[in-house]
Write a structure and sequence with these properties.
Blueprint (H helix, E strand, L loop, with lengths): L2 E5 L5 H10 L5 E7 L3 H11 L3 E5 L5 H15 L4 E4 L14 H29 L2 E6 L2 H5 L5 H21 L4 E6 L14 H10 L8 H13 L7 E2 L8
Parallel strand pairs: 1-2, 1-4, 2-3, 4-5, 5-6, 6-7
The structure holds NADP nicotinamide-adenine-dinucleotide phosphate.
Length: 240
């Protein structure tokens, strides 16, 4: 049976890698959400073809999220898998973080997951089937210096996911977290070559991750039937 999968923030980076990996299975129909990067989203659609659709929505806007989910359910009747990947980061000393920075971080990285989950959940409960995968970060597990607001939002994702896993387990809905380490995407493009080399040196596997490393983990979670409420951290051993 076809599996209907929504991936937020999938024009670039990790989200794009997830769509590329999951679309290899022709039984998967993927709705690849994007916001600003229309050109990249169109390119993704052209590259992959029939089993993906691209859909523009700002995940911080409840109305746009509700409309996106309504579109999917009206067309396909269900959503089997929700992958909350869209996110932003910002490197700033805590003393420099403004109220706007704080609110933007929490809204984009955490409140957006409340909007998407709220929008899909009655359909999943009705079907007694669902898989939700929330992308957090190692900084949500151990805290990152100069990323206090990011760390707070990503820790919130972990708390939200564990609580939801308990509440939704009896409805056969699994909720898990992937907390990546350093992954080579636009999110890290501002970091100097030296910083990247330092991270590599500190990482037991001596390498930086790729979107595919996260996508493989996502794929496994979409197929598994006995894992819920867990935080899985592909990070090369940087955080153990
Ligand atoms: P990225 O390359 O900067 O891509 C971010 C993606 O999020 C883009 O596709 C962007 O879409 C989307 N996005 C941002 N705001 C959005 C909004 N309001 N509505 C819809 N989409 C939105 O970042 P990435 O590295 O792939 O990060 C993906 C996720 O992994 C994030 O949650 C991030 O925190 C997490 N993560 C990343 C790393 C890392 O080292 N890269 C490590 C740990 C966790 P548009 O461009 O279309 O707006």
């Amino acid at each position: 049976m076809k599996k209907i999968i929504l991936v937020t923030g999938s024009s670039r980076g990790i989200g794009r890698g997830i769509v590329e990996e999951l679309s290899k299975d022709e039984e998967n129909i993927i709705i690849a959400n994007y916001n600003k990067s229309e050109k990249e989203a169109i390119d993704l659609k052209e590259k992959i073809g029939d089993n993906i659709e691209i859909y523009k929505a700002d995940v911080t806007n409840k109305i746009e999220v509700d409309n996106m989910v309504k579109y999917i359910i009206d067309k396909y009747g269900k959503i089997d898998v929700l992958i909350n990947n869209a996110g932003i980061s910002q490197v700033k000393m805590f003393t420099d973080i403004t109220e706007d920075d704080w609110n933007n971080m929490i809204t984009t990285n955490l409140t957006s997951m409340y909007f998407t989950t709220k929008a899909v959940i009655s359909n999943m409960i009705h079907n007694k089937n669902g898989c939700i995968i929330n992308i957090s970060s190692i900084w949500g597990m151990v805290g990152g210096s100069c990323e206090v607001h990011y760390s707070a939002a990503k820790a919130g994702v972990i708390g939200m996911s564990k609580a939801l896993a308990k509440e939704l387990g009896p409805s056969n809905i699994r909720v898990n977290v992937i907390a990546p380490g350093f992954i080579d995407t636009d999110m890290n493009k501002e970091l100097s070559k030296e910083t990247t080399e330092e991270v590599k040196e500190e990482t037991p596997l001596r390498k930086i991750g790729k979107p595919l490393d996260i996508a493989r983990c996502v794929k496994w979670l979409t197929e598994d039937e006995f894992t819920t409420g867990q935080v899985i951290s592909p990070n090369g051993g940087w955080v153990i």
